[in-house]
Structures are given as structure tokens and as C-alpha cells.
Amino acid sequence: MKKQRNIFLVCIVIFVIAALIGYCTYTVIKKRNASGEKELIISFLDIGQGDATFITFPNGQQMLVDCAIDARILEALGRVMPFRDFSIDYLVVTHPDLDHYGGCVDVLKRFDVAQTLYNGYQKETIDYFDVFQQVIQEEGIYHEVSQEEVLEIASTSVRFLYPTHSVRKDPRIPGNSTDTGSNNTSVVMKLTYGDEDVLLTGDTEAPLEEYLVSTYDNDLDAEVLKVGHHGSGGSSSQEFLQKVSPEHAVISVGADNRYGHPSGRVLKRLQRLHASVWRTDQMGDIIAHITPSTVYVETREQK
């Protein structure tokens, strides 16, 4: 009899705990959706070492920024796109490093992409780049980002901060006499929805960060930062991070990668700024739900 009573008490305790968890979850969801406002949803996809960011605008239009290293991008898109959706409105390729553009040909073959935006940088020594270059110019509208410009999509401003010149003609950062590499030709974008900002930086490193700070200063401020170059030690300088002053810092990185990303120094800089750090290698897909006045971040770990 005593044993049955103990089992009964344990069941009651489990029930109470489950009810409390359910109530707290309901409260968070209710709070997040209390305004009933449409969301800008940005999914930083867990695709290993590389980058792929899928954006759903408040009116349902979609933008993919970078495509991972290979066809694994298709499985990742299947996690965030409706099953029978075979169209993407915008594809942005930040620069020609394989872990950013390697899966773009697969995307362009699988999906009807209305417009592709690229920085124009030519990587002539790699055969696969020639295939990529041919396909992106054949499918849909092709546009090279070569100046500061703005796309207005469903109450969201998509501002291209870099390149501010033709990197096809001259890959150097303005004011620099030396070529600092393809990472520093990355397309840099700032999305603004109401009072909330998201800064996407590709593989930006310290030399380009310095140019961005000198050019845009406090305009770099953003609630969400996609940390440059997977959190490498050559990116995310103290001055740049202070200008951005992110509340949330997302690092797209592969588990146990051979590059040692993210750098411990970068993590400490973000910690000093009291930014919440979200890593795809530890947390899976990282999804930011943004209204004109709030940012809510959730994670979806892959099974």
C-alpha cells in the first residue's frame, strides 16, 4: 500500500512539472506572438563548415544567402521550406569560396530562382567556378552588386553595404593598395524591419571591417549579427563589434573543423559585449523570428 502511495505521489509530481513546462512554453509563445504582427524569419542553417542563410519575408517572399559547400544545401532547405515549394525569389552569393557557393548550382537546378545577386569576383583557376559562373548567368535575372543599394521587400529594407565598387575590375578594398583576398570582397547586407536590424557579413575580415566602420560608423548597429568568417581570429575586431553592438551573434561553423573556428578571442569579445552567442555546430539550425519591435531566437538541433 505504501509503495502504491509513493508511485501515486511520483506521478503527481511528474504531472505538475509537465504542466509547469507546458505553461511556461505557452507563455513564451504567447508573448512572442502577442502583437499578431507578421514576422521576418531568418534561418541560419546547420550545414557544417560553411554558410547558408534562408530568409522568409513578411509577405512570404524568400531569399537564400549562400549555399553551403555542396548539395547538402537541398536537405537543409527542406527543413525550412514547404514541401512543394520549388521557387526562390532571391539568391545572394556573397563571394566565391566553395563553402559559400559550392551548392549554388544544385540550388539553381532544383529551384526556379528569380534573381541572383553576386559580387562579380572572378576565381579563374578553379574549374567548378566556371560552371557556377555560367549557371548563375543563365538562370533568371543576374545582377552584380557594385555599389551601395537598397531592395525594399515587404516592409523590410535590404541594404547592400558592400561592395561599393566593381570587384570584378578591382578586388581591393577602397583605399587599400594590396589585394586582401576574396573574403574581403564579400557582399555585406543589413536588413531592417521596423526597429530591428540584422547584419550579414559573409567572410568579412578585419581589413574590410575597418573600411565598413570608417564608411558607415554607427549605421552598423544591429540587434543580430551573422559573425564574419565563421568566427575566425582574423575577423570580428573589437572596434567593429563595438559599432555593431549585437544582442545576438550567430556563428555558422562545422563541428570539430580543422580551422579552429570559432576563435576563443572572438568568443571573449562577444562575451564582453554581453551578446548571446548561437552556434550551428552546437545548436543546429538557428532561427530568428523578428517583428518590427522584437527579436526571438530558437534552435532546432538535427536528429
Task: Tell me about this structure.
Residues 49-255 form the Metallo-beta-lactamase domain. This is Metallo-beta-lactamase domain-containing protein. Keywords: Membrane, Transmembrane, Transmembrane helix. The chain is an alpha/beta fold and 303 residues long. It has 2 domains: 1-36; 39-300, Metallo-beta-lactamase, Chain A (4-Layer Sandwich), CATH 3.60.15. Helices cover 30% and strands 25% of the residues. It is built from 9 helices and 15 strands. The strands form 2 sheets. It has an 8-stranded mixed beta sheet with strand order 6-5-4-3-2-1-14-15, covered by helices on one side. A 7-stranded mixed beta sheet has the order 7-8-9-10-11-12-13. β14 and β15 form a beta hairpin. The N and C termini lie far apart (42 Å). Mean pLDDT is 89; it is low at 6-11 and 13-33.
Furnish the topology, listing elements before pairings.
Layout: H1 2-32, E1 40-44, E2 53-56, E3 62-65, H2 72-78, E4 87-93, H3 98-101, H4 104-110, E5 112-118, H5 127-138, E6 141-144, E7 149-153, E8 156-162, E9 188-193, E10 196-200, H6 206-216, E11 224-226, H7 238-244, E12 248-251, H8 264-272, E13 276-279, H9 280-283, E14 285-290, E15 295-300
Question: What's the short story on this structure?
Answer:
The chain contains nine helices and 15 strands.
Task: Pick out its properties.
single chain, 303 residues, alpha/beta, Metallo-beta-lactamase, Chain A, 2 domains, 8-stranded mixed β-sheet, 7-stranded mixed β-sheet, 9 helices
